[in-house]
Structures are given as structure tokens and as C-alpha cells.
Amino acid sequence: MGTNLRALAATVTTTGVLTTALLCAPPTANARAVPDLAPRQTGTATLGTAVTGTTVAGTTVTGTAVTGATVSGTAVSGTGKANGAIGGDRLAGRGIIRPAGIKPPPKTEASAYVIADADTGAVLAAKDPHGHYLPASTLKTLTAVTLIPRLDKNRKIKPSEEACNVEGSAVGIVPEPIYKVDDLFRALLMVSGNDAAVALAEANGGVKKTLADMNKEARKLQAYDTVAKTPNGLDAPGQRSSAYDLALIARAGLALPDFREYISTKVAKFPAPKEDPKKKKKKRRDDAEASESPAPAYYEMANHNRLLGRYKGMLGVKNGWTSKALGSFVGAAKRDGHTILVVIMHHPGSFWDEVAKLLDWGFAARGKAAPVGQLVAPAPDPKPASSPLAVRASPTPGGADVGAARARGEDPASNGAGSTTPLVIGGGAVVVLALGAYALRRRRRTPGDATG
Predict the structure, then answer these.
(1) 115-125: burial string, b at 16+ Cβ within 10 Å, e else
(2) Catalytic one of 111, 169, 192, 328
(3) Residue-wise pLDDT tens digits, 182-217
(4) What is the pTM of this model?
(5) What does the alpha-carbon distance between residue 346 and residue 375 come to, in Å, rounded to a whole number?
(6) Exactly one of 81, 111, 127, 140 is catalytic; which is it?
(7) Is 140 known to be catalytic?
(8) Could you tell me if residue 150 is left (phi over 0), alpha (psi between -120 and 50 degrees) or otherwise beta?
(9) Residue 318 is among the residues annotated as catalytic for this protein
(10) Is 192 a catalytic residue?
(11) Which of 155, 336, 360, 393 has the fewest CB atoms within 10 Å, measured from its CB?
(12) For residue range 280-302, what is the model confidence (pLDDT) as tens digits?
């Protein structure tokens, strides 16, 4: 995915801009039951027919309809109907899904994509939207959405040696307390710093905790195709996402002001370690002392998103690439007050021009055709169940009896006059417990105990 830039950010152009272009890609909304997160059966099965008790590579698939085939080892499996229900039944398809009455979306070499209206959540067109693919660095969008609300952006961070030596694309951090959380988020989303991702995870309590938080956030967003195994998107067994899920995650990110700022920044300053004052000054060949200006305490990094400043209204988001995942990209652009999202996955070559055309199509199609699906809203927080003990006594005789009986799932009409008994007994029990606790406390107190 690139080279480690730890030696003061490795390659800096003559204008002082950090360049890591090698890390870019090469030249009805009602949710149903949460689908099984285990890899689904490959091959074919009738859509809508449950495959029960069938073991697939050691994982039992229960009650999930499956269809489709694996894509050259990168798509984990076909899409089940349970997954297709997230966002609409049409999104269960593996081919191109488009509205009738308008021209089809432009062709792309991506194995999967989603074009959506970020404002309304309407999915305008898609291809294999719930197919499971390796996300590469587009997974950093989930890292950011998870951690931005959890971390104070002004907090200073001292990365560990482990974070500083992460493989792949790196911004070149060192184990010194010179970085703010804000700096690391910029490095994460602008230049895809794998080292910055691990440092942020450490600031959140460790990589293990952060992965748990990321997967919890994915479930909250109803991104059920997504399983995070690394905070930076480096390929790992079991890690996966889908074009639909990345659209959900990006939409959640766009709702965060800091996220929007990071993804839209073209060039930013990043802290650099100061040069060792004990280091001897360089000498010219004629032994004359070289004139040296003080080294800056920062260097500049440039956003990897090539459409920033090039495509009208481009807001940004994130690209990614590994040799197994191939190219992936999440992009958002805003024109005339409307924001269009485009996600592509598993692209074999340079995708920038194709993404621009997909965005153009999205702006043209918005409001002119019926959506093919919907980006669902985050799942509501579960409400605590009511308890009979929480029912307050009513000043009206018998009023509390009805409330308590209903809370217990009983029919108040069947209890008759005796329905007051449970409350009387419950009240007596509270008195007995209170008296017992008081007596126990009195027995345990010794003459030396303090009072008050």
C-alpha cells in the first residue's frame, strides 16, 4: 500500500508538500432482522428459500437465503435476502439496479457501487450493493465516525513504537508527544495514515477496544455487511464491507462537522520532530560552514482525493487500495444544495473519471425517477422494559392495581377485588427489608464506630 514515511515523512516535494500518491488507487427503507454476519454460502440457492443447518467452511448458516458466487476471492459470498431487505428488496440483486424511464448509469469496471442522495437517503442506482468485499482504507471512514465523538481533538498523543511502525501508507509519526488528536484525524482521512489509525485507536483505549467500538457503531448504523478487524483497513481475515454499508457510514460522517472539515482539506500542516541540537552542522566541500535555516516544526501533507478541486462541488471522503481489495472509493459532492454520494468497490484500475461520471449521473437523476432503495436511518436505541415495581401507587383505589397488572402482562379484569394483594405484599416486603437492614447495621456497629 505504500512506503513508511517515518523518516520525517519520507518524500517531500520541493514545495514542501507530502506526497504519497502510490497509496491511491492504481492508474422502502424498513430494516428487517439483523442478518447473520458469518460468510454466507456460495454457489446458488433460490432467493427466499432458507438454507438451514448447512455448514459452510465451518460456519453454520441458519435461516438465511443465499445466492450468487464468490468474486475471485475478494467478494466473500453472494447476497442473502436478509441483507437485501436492508434498504429495500431490490437491493438484494447482484447486477445493475436502476430506475426505469431514464438513461442507465455510466459503465464502470467496479464490481460493486452505490449512487445515493445523501440528503434524502434515496438510493438512485446500484450494483451488487450488499456484496461483501475487502474495504481497504475506505474502512477508515468507520474509524473516524466511531472515534471523532469519543476523543478530544485538542488532546496531545504520544504514539507507541508499534503504531509508528505499522506497514503500508503512513504519515510518518514518531513516539513523541507532539501530535494532537486533530492532527491524527487529518492524517487518517487526508493521506490514509495507517500509523495514525493505530495511534488514534491507542488513544481510545487500545486497538481491541476500538475494534469493538467500530463494530458496535456499524451495527448502530445498520451496516450489517461490515466487520472491522483493523482500524486502518489493512487486509485481515474476516474483514469486509459493502458499497451499501460504506454509503451509510459516509452519510453518518457527513453529519459530523469535523469529519466534513478533514475530508475537504486539500493541504494541511503536520507536526514534525525537531532536529537534534547536538547534531553537527554539515560542512561544505570547501570546509566552509554551511548556512542552515532552522528546520520547521511541521511539514505539509496533501489530500489523496484527486477530485478535490477538480470536480465541481467535491466534498471529499476517502479512497483505498490493496492488491487484494483493488481500488475502492467513497465520494460526496454538493451542487445547488444537494449532495450525491458515490461508492465503488473492487475496481481494477484508475477510477477517478468513472466516479466523476457516476456523480454527474446522480445529480441528473435525482428527483426524476423512483429510488431503487433507501439508505436506512441508524437503529433506535433500545428502550428499557417497564417493571411492575416502577408503577407508582395511585391515589384512586384500584388505579395502581391495573397499571401493575398490565406491566406484568396480566389481565386486570380477571383479578377482581383481590388485585390489590400484590401491591400490599410488595409494600410489606419493602418495610421488612428496610427493618432487617437497619437491625443488621445496628448489630454490626461497635462502640468505636463513627457516627454521622
Answers:
(1) bbbbeebbbbb
(2) 192
(3) 999 999 999 999 999 999 999 999 999 999 999 999
(4) 0.69
(5) 21
(6) 140
(7) yes
(8) alpha
(9) no
(10) yes
(11) 336
(12) 455 444 444 444 556 668 999 99
